[in-house]
Queue: 3 jobs
Job 1
Amino acid sequence: QAWLNEKFAPELLESKPEIVECVVEQLDHMEANLKRAKKGDLKVSVHRMEIERIRYVLSSYLRCRLVKIEKFFPHVLEKEKSRAEGEPSILSPEEFAFAKEYMANTETYLKNVALKHMPPNLQKVSLLKSVPKPNLDAFVFLRVLERQENILVEPETDEQREYTIDLEEGSQHLIRYKTIAPLVASGAVQLI
């Protein structure tokens, strides 16, 4: 579920380091069990295939997160800086270090390649303004896991009035992401 939500959400979602650690531990445990198994057993090849499937999902999840960090790095770091004390982090410690280093390297590259050749009044650039923000107005498909009532849907045009909808458990919808972003974070809906 964390993998699918991350894959289909237009923004970087909350980090799930406990899930990643659990999956890595399970993979290590499964590989240790396979080493003790008899050679040529059909179960070994089936379990090896399952390990590869799990490894693919885990690497795809982490790759999705890294792509979003690279694409929206100033906004991700700004969001991380401005989060409240008790609010969960959207970046794991490793991702935070990567994002800071990526931003520093990008700034250095821009200065060395382009900005130092510009007139003095144009030698500063704000990455926060230059790098596009995640498109929270994008539409996403979702499946409702827990019934939700009175979800405020913003109008498509100014002529329409705002209205609320009820999301029935098990139903599927196509809705603007920013409308249901809190429900994705809480686990009440799953992106598909």
Job 2
Amino acid sequence: CSRPQKVCLCPFLPINPLKVSICLYIIQHPAEESRVLRTVPLLAACLPPDKCKILVGRRFSEDRYPELATVCRNPNTLILYPGAEAANLEEVAVMSSSPSFMIIIDGTWSQAKDVFYKNSLFRLPKQVQLKTNISSQYVIRTQPTNSCLSTLECAAVALTIMEKNKSIQETILRPLKALCSFQLQYGAQIHHSKEHLLKNGLYDKPMPKNKRKLRRMELLVNNVKI
């Protein structure tokens, strides 16, 4: 895990990489690469190298990324990104055979939105989203809403659904829970979602002046899906 021995996560990783049929392509925003407490390295440590490929960048053209372009054009590829046009992954899993590839964008919500909409390749695969009631275990980082999950958690849930194997989610989440436990022991604080803070009058930062951002906060408080 490349961490100091006192906070080593290796005992919480699977002894052998998980056997999965789907290959994940993690499209990582460059800003995520410099974060200390990232979840993608933990995800990669749980899977075989040929089943978890990480591409870092903001723009992905067909000329510079021919392999990715081929994956995006494959009819058996899904992209995990929520939206009005996204199908429920559980329904897709019931109606079709297991996909060959799944693309997940790693970054903050604004970074992921920028990557998704400014790269035409990512509109080629079938768009899917998770309909789950689980709360994020990544409690040392603030999420926009109570239902938001980290990249590792999204991958864990998605793989569990598509591979029809509940133990996958438990195995992948184990090192994340250990990471958060270690950080809390050494002084980190539990981060509630922005939605939780706003609804309970605990949000202590200045409200944004930008009308669009202010409107998004109002929607969070009023339980409107954004």
Job 3
Amino acid sequence: MSSFEEAETEETVTCLHLTFYHPCQDEKMMFRCLNFCKREQVRADEMAKFGRDSSVCRYNLMDTRVSRIQFSLQFFRKLHTSEYCFEIKNLSKKTKLTVNQTELGYLNKIDLPWKCIICFGDYQILAEIQEGESVDYFETHLHLAEAPILQERCLPSLQPIPENGISPSFFLSQGKSPTEIDENEL
């Protein structure tokens, strides 16, 4: 057997991609302490904290309007499954945290969706989970957005548009309901 065949199977690592945006990031440099260059390993039993207190928080935001500890992310495995997830907890007594449309007050926590937008104050953070198998640690990969995330990620309308291009809401506003017409009758 070759050494290649005897080598241990390489396991994939769960990676949390976080893309940061603030409208004043160029002039205030609040992200200057974040490492945007490479992935960073975090032990599975550690809580990743975000805030302005560098003695407590792993990820520092240099802004006096940010709480000492703004929020935390905890890596965990769902009960009776092999699925790994993150839980986000608001640790700010003054600022509410929004995850997609869910508002979290102080000490509220929820499971982080696999793709979501986290907002507090003027901060916008796009969080995307890349699944992995490692149980010992996860990785974070930080990115900096040039434009607002909420405007970049506008979801298209989920209402289908008929072939004639007239929206069903047009008929409802007219007090009429759409009628089916055989194409041979036109």
